[in-house]
Amino acid sequence: MKKYIPAISTGAIFLIVWEVVAILIDAMYILPSPSSIVKKIWELRDILFTVHLPATFSVIMIGMAISIALGVALAMLMSMHPVIERAFYPLLVASQTIPITALAPLFVLWFGYTIWSKVLVTVLITFFPIAVNVYDGFRSTKRETEELFVTFGASKKDIFLKLRLPSALPYFFSALKIAMPLSVIGAAIGEWLGAQSGLGYFSKRMMTQLDGAGVFAPIVLLSVIAIIFVLIVSLIEKKTTRWRKEV
């Protein structure tokens, strides 16, 4: 618990300063205070937690599931076959040069206001860090160690399952820690540009009403979701990679 004290203290100071500045400015539609945002979340709890939060959560979960499946599969193929690596790795890098906000309206035209237009935005944002990090994880095994496994009669399957896969696990969890917050951002962007429900959509709707606290309320929920996801991934990582402490 002691290790979290600096972060908690810094966060508390930041919120206090924010509260004071918001009171001094006295323009809630521009800079609402933290207390007014919390109050707004409580006032809108029914529609936020029963309508918009589940919609955003569904986009995040589906998008992350697709990104993990495709990203890990492509990383495995690239690590096993240099030809695939040369063919797809440059495309992965090139995909990150495309502004997602420019593509999102096209996704709405293709898929309408269905969940898939938002899922596709989420996948495009999260697929790259997962594929690249896991690929680096598979490549992190030392050639000398692989040769030692071969000397002891290990098959390619044994080398993959007992050497390369464990070596890639830390990279996989690092990728998830990056991708999870990005998935929240991707879902919010997709909802902001074209949706009928979701926290991003609700924030945009509150902006048209010049409701500063209403704009920040779903943003705060999105931040909390991202933090919870990262904490869950960190917990799973500690449980599944205990061997790293012994190395």
Measured by DSSP, the beta-strand proportion falls in: under 5%
* CATH homologous superfamily annotation: MetI-like
Second rung of CATH, namely the architecture: Orthogonal Bundle
Low-confidence stretches: none
The geometry reads as globular
Query: How far apart are the first and last residues' alpha carbons, in Å?
Result: 25 Å
CATH fold name, please?
MetI-like fold
Membrane topology: Multi-pass membrane protein
GO cellular component, one term: plasma membrane
Organism: Priestia taiwanensis
InterPro entries: MetI-like, MetI-like_sf
Would you kindly provide a written description of the structure presented here, covering whatever features stand out?
- Belongs to the binding-protein-dependent transport system permease family.
- By secondary structure, the protein is mainly α.
- Helix 8 packs parallel to helix 9.
- The chain has a single domain (38-240), classed as Orthogonal Bundle (MetI-like fold).
- The longest helix has 38 residues, at 156-193.
- It has ten helices and no strands.
- The chain starts with a helix and ends in a 7-residue tail after the last helix.
